[in-house]
Design a protein that fits this description.
The protein has one domain: Amino acid/polyamine transporter I. The chain is built from 15 helices and no strands. It has helices at residues 15-26, 34-42, 46-68, 77-85, 87-119, 126-145, 148-173, 190-204, 220-249, 259-268, 270-304, 323-339, 342-370, 385-399, 403-423. α4 (77-85) packs across α13 (342-370), α5 (87-119) runs antiparallel to α13 and α7 runs antiparallel to α11 (270-304). The longest helix has 35 residues, at 270-304. Mean pLDDT is 87; it is low at 1-5.
Length: 433
């Protein structure tokens, strides 16, 4: 069956569902350990890094908002780079995003098994770990194959499950936090501030999840910019609140292996630690569900663009989901989760993310010239100012990459070039403008 003969996806993602997807991309496993890492680097001045990282991520998200306001097809960074710089550049951006999502899903699944280990110790190692990883990926893959509505409904439920414990933590902890534990004095070691900011920028990433499944979003050109701004703003405030409470209630924050759970136990007792442990399970599961949805839609978009085998662009006749793409994404994510560790997998996806952030920021001024202005639903103020500042952020992040990360990204792009040469074919798929 020809790809173009397959029915279109169902537009069933509203503003609330797309916001949940973006928040799930940003709030994953990291926040449950992040305050300790930042406190190790900056001590009482930690909150400064949150403000800097939040502002930097907002600049990049603004570029996604303008680019996304011009399209209603799926693909996000792949689509923006393709229309701005041609099909090969677009394919490379799509492959980098796919690598980032596979590594991210695998890393989060490892964090899920580790957190489950607090409740069921066997899940943290050996056969129990493999069973937990296999079960969560299989269930989430099955749900995402059943249709966009079940997939988004699951994400919405898991988003509530992760945010409620964090909201309780912030609301109750605010009354117990000692403000004298927090300082806004600049740290004496600028290098520590840069390291902490880099760590937080990677943690804030994931808002771009909302830009991928535009063919299933109701009025994506208007919805996406609003969702991106609201999601980034909300998560910045949430992270600031979490760190404020953790700093003010846990004296040994910098050395804690479970900073949020340990902090919650200080003012909520054992029930508080259990609440945060359960919240971590919801958080990792929700992020994984969103990652499977997003990763499969990227493979679908590449196939619809004529750059991967056509079978990946086919939709199930009943569920209207790219079942083959969903399975193809889930299998390597499962294999990487079983064979890797959280730290290894998180590092693998970090540089890939910054590279496709860079292509999107570069694409904004090009798309302004190439596409009609009347089709744009959102335009950044200040001309090129915001894209240039966002590119500066990306350059700063790239300058801090390790040699291993650079080699992995280079190998991915080389492999992408070989795949592109093998599968690229002419297509009549429109740009989605």
């Amino acid at each position: 069956m020809a790809v173009n003969a397959i029915p279109a996806p169902i537009r069933a993602i509203g503003r609330a569902g797309l916001t949940a997807i973006a928040i799930n991309g940003m709030v994953g496993a990291g926040i449950f350990a992040l305050p300790a890492n930042v406190a190790q680097l900056l001590g009482p001045s930690s909150l400064i890094a949150y403000f800097i990282a939040g502002a930097a991520v907002l600049l990049v998200a603004l570029c996604f908002a303008e680019a996304g306001s011009q399209f209603d097809s799926s693909g996000g960074p792949y689509l923006y780079a393709r229309e701005a710089f041609g099909p090969f550049a677009g394919f490379q951006a799509g492959m980098l995003l796919t690598l980032s999502r596979v590594a991210g899903a695998a890393a989060i699944t490892n964090a899920f098994s580790a957190n489950l280990g607090f409740l069921w110790p066997a899940a943290a190692q050996g056969a129990g770990r493999v069973f937990a990883i296999t079960l969560v990926i299989a269930v989430l893959t099955w749900i995402n194959c059943l249709g966009i509505r079940p997939g988004v409904r699951t994400i919405n439920i898991l988003t509530c499950g992760k945010l409620i414990p964090l909201a309780v933590f912030c609301a109750v902890g605010f009354f117990y936090a000692d403000s004298r534990s927090v300082s806004f004095a600049l740290p004496t070691a600028p290098g520590s501030l840069q390291q902490a900011t880099l760590l937080l920028i990677y943690a804030f990433g994931g808002f771009e999840f909302a830009a991928i499944p535009s063919e299933e979003v109701v009025d994506p050109r208007r919805t996406l910019p609003a969702v991106l701004m609201a999601s980034v703003g909300f998560v910045v405030l949430l992270y600031l609140s979490i760190h404020w409470v953790a700093m003010g209630t846990l004296p040994g924050l910098a050395s804690s292996a479970t900073p949020l759970a340990s902090s919650a136990r200080m003012f909520l007792g054992p029930a508080g630690g259990m609440l945060l442990a359960v919240g971590a399970l919801f958080s990792t599961t929700g992020t994984n569900s969103a990652a499977i949805l997003i990763g499969s839609r990227m493979l679908y978009a590449l196939a619809r663009g004529g750059q991967l085998p056509a079978v990946l662009g086919r939709l199930h006749p009943r569920y209207r989901t790219p079942v083959v793409s969903t399975l193809l994404f889930a299998v390597p994510a499962w294999a990487a989760a079983v064979g890797g560790t959280f730290g290894q997998l998180a590092a693998l996806g970090a540089l890939s993310r910054v590279l496709y952030y860079t292509t999107t920021c570069l694409a904004v001024p090009v798309l302004r010239r190439k596409l009609p202005r009347e089709g744009r639903r959102f335009e950044l103020p200040g001309g090129w100012c915001i894209p240039v500042l966002a590119l500066g952020v990306c350059a700063w992040l790239l300058s801090g990459s390790t040699r291993e990360q650079a080699l992995i990204a280079g190998a991915t792009m080389l492999a992408g070039a070989m795949v592109y040469r093998a599968f690229a074919r002419p297509t009549r798929e429109n740009s989605g403008m």
